[in-house]
Design goal:
mainly alpha; 11 helices
Length: 270
């Protein structure tokens, strides 16, 4: 008898969680539109949301092409970070000597601002390779750090049980440590997804300053130089939408992979 009210309350909370941000966004856009219209603010200072939407439609051929370039770079950097971060973390777990030798350099790579690295990479690498390298650099460390933490956070009782039954290091790694580290890996991927987009945007802005580029960040810089502020806002909206979609896609992946066994997902469905 008590389960039905709990389910209804849970559905109501889910609806509120979805509806409140949408309502707040709608109110913000409405206030923005009214302020621009009532005060007569010119488009080159602050375009109205309606003008931004109209620009998004009219310039879609240009913006969609740039969106494809940025999206491909982001996904490539993310995949490289996934492969490199998880692979290197597995290697660290198998060899402490390798971890002690390479992990400090991964930290140095992480703490060095990518905005300072991008112009240097553009000197020594082709433009697309430099942009991809920036996307990989900022996304790599969260995957490496979270995977390493997950592999080192295995229950010692289970570890002793595996050893008691004569399991090899490889068996312990693949059958115990890696499944136990999956929530940490997925958490690192959610962070890396947004960071790979940030790295690609920073590198594209640097490439645009050097007179080259074709991604959305380049369109933002180009629009700023030409005082085409509506197109700048339209490109910025597309970047925001891409970032949100990446985050929700990775959150959905995490939920689907953890919902049947991990407490972080099971408790939400209870």
């Amino acid at each position: 008898m008590s389960e039905e009210p709990i389910r209804v309350q849970g559905r109501a909370e889910d609806v509120l969680r979805l509806a409140l941000p949408i309502i707040l966004l709608g109110l913000g856009v409405l206030v923005w539109e009214l302020v621009v219209r009532l005060k007569g603010i010119p488009p080159y200072v602050l375009p109205a949301p309606s003008l931004v939407f109209a620009t998004l439609v009219s310039d879609w051929s240009i913006l969609s092409e740039s969106l494809g370039v940025t999206l491909i770079t982001t996904l490539e950097g993310f995949v490289l970070a996934l492969i490199g971060g998880v692979g290197l973390a597995l290697l660290f777990n198998l060899s402490r000597l390798v971890e002690y030798s390479l992990y400090p350099y991964a930290v140095v790579l992480q703490v060095t601002p990518v905005v300072a690295i991008a112009p240097l990479l553009l000197i020594y690498l082709p433009q697309q390779a430099a942009v991809l390298a920036c996307a990989w650099i900022v996304a790599f460390f969260p995957v490496l750090a979270n995977t390493t933490l997950g592999l080192n956070s295995v229950d010692h009782n289970l570890l002793d049980l595996f050893r008691l039954h004569g399991a090899s290091r490889t068996q312990v790694l693949w059958r115990l440590k890696l499944p136990s580290a999956l929530p940490y890996i997925l958490g690192g991927l959610k962070i890396a997804g947004g960071l790979s987009l940030i790295g690609a945007v920073v590198a594209e802005i640097a490439a645009g300053a050097a007179g080259a580029g074709s991604g959305l960040a380049y369109r933002i810089s180009e629009s700023g130089y030409r005082l085409n502020i509506p197109r700048m806002f339209a490109a910025l909206v597309l970047l925001s939408v891409v970032g949100i979609l990446i985050y929700f896609a990775l959150s959905l992946l995490s939920h689907l992979m953890l919902r049947r066994w991990h407490e972080s997902a099971v408790s939400r469905e209870a």
